[in-house]
Amino acid sequence: MQRETYHRVAATSSDEIGRLTNTFNAMTEELNYARKKMQKWTQSLEEEVKKKTKEILKTQGKLIQAEKMAALGRITADIAHEIRNPLTALGEFGRRLQKVSSSEKEKEYSDIIVSEVHRLEQILRDVMTFSRDVKTCFEKMPVTDMVKDCVLTFSALCEEHGITIDARYGTSLPVLVDRGQAAQAIKNLISNAIDVMTNGGSLLVTTSLERLYDAPFVAAYIGYRAWHPSGAATSHFRAVSYDQGNRPWYRARAFDQKEDHRRARGLH
Hints:
It is a single chain. By secondary structure, the protein is an alpha+beta fold. The protein has 2 domains: about 10-135, Helix Hairpins (Orthogonal Bundle); about 140-255, Heat Shock Protein 90 (2-Layer Sandwich). Helix content is about 55%, strand content about 20%. It contains 4 helices and 7 strands; from the N terminus they run ααβαββαββββ. It has helices at about 15-100, 105-130, 145-160, 180-195, and strands at about 140, 165-170, 175-180, 200-210, 215-225, 235-245, 250-255. The strands form 2 sheets. It has a 5-stranded mixed β-sheet with strand order 2-4-5-6-7, with helices on one face. It has a two-stranded antiparallel ribbon with strand order 1-3. A hairpin with a 5-residue loop joins strand 5 (about 215-225) and strand 6. Helix 1 runs antiparallel to helix 2 (about 105-130) and helix 3 packs parallel to helix 4 (about 180-195). Residues about 245-268 have low confidence and may be disordered.
C-alpha cells in the first residue's frame, strides 16, 4: 500500500511567508492529483495489457486449432478418395444386378445396394467439403414413407439375426425435413438396436402424431427388446421427432423403458 505524500502546511500569516505557504500547498495538491491520475492510468494500462494478452492467447489457440483442422481435412480428403473408388465399383455392380435379377427378392436386394451406395456417396461428398457449410435440402414429405424405406434396408439383416420387425405406422402427415440427414438419423438408431440384439429380439418401429406444449409434431420411435442366453430381456427406446410447423428440425432423444413406461409403449 502506497503512503499518502500529500501534506498541507498551515498558513499562519498573510505576509510573504504566508503567501509562500499557500503556493507550496497549491503545488502539493497539483502534484498529488497528478500522482493519482498517473496511478489510475497505470492501472488501466495493466488491465488493458492483461485483456490484450488474453485475446492474443485465445487467437493463438484458434490458429493452432485451425492448423489441426486443416491437417485433418487433408487426411480426410485422402481417405474419402480411397473409399470412393471401390464404392463406385460397388454401385456399378449393384446396378448390373438390378438388370439381371431374376427374382423379386434379388431385385429388392439390388435396389437396397444401389440406394445405400448412393447414400454413402453423398456422405463422402459431404466429408470432402466438411470445411465448408454442407448444403441442406429441405422438402416436405411424409415421415412414414421415409421410415418404411429405412426399415426395408435392414429387413434382410434382421432376418439373418433372428430379429422380428414390428412396424406400426400411425400417420402419413408430411413434415419439412432434409431427407438424407433425417434418414441417416433413423438408420443409425435401427443399426444401433440391431447391434445390441446379438441373440435375436424384437425391433419396434412406429410413427405417430403427437403434441408437446400444444405444438404438433410427428415422432418416429425405434425400440428393441433384446433376448439374452439367460432368458432375460433388455428393452430400450429411442425417438426422432419432426416439427410439423414451418420450421424444419429433428432431434434424437433416448428413453429407458424402466424410467419412462409411457414412452416405451408396445415394448412390454
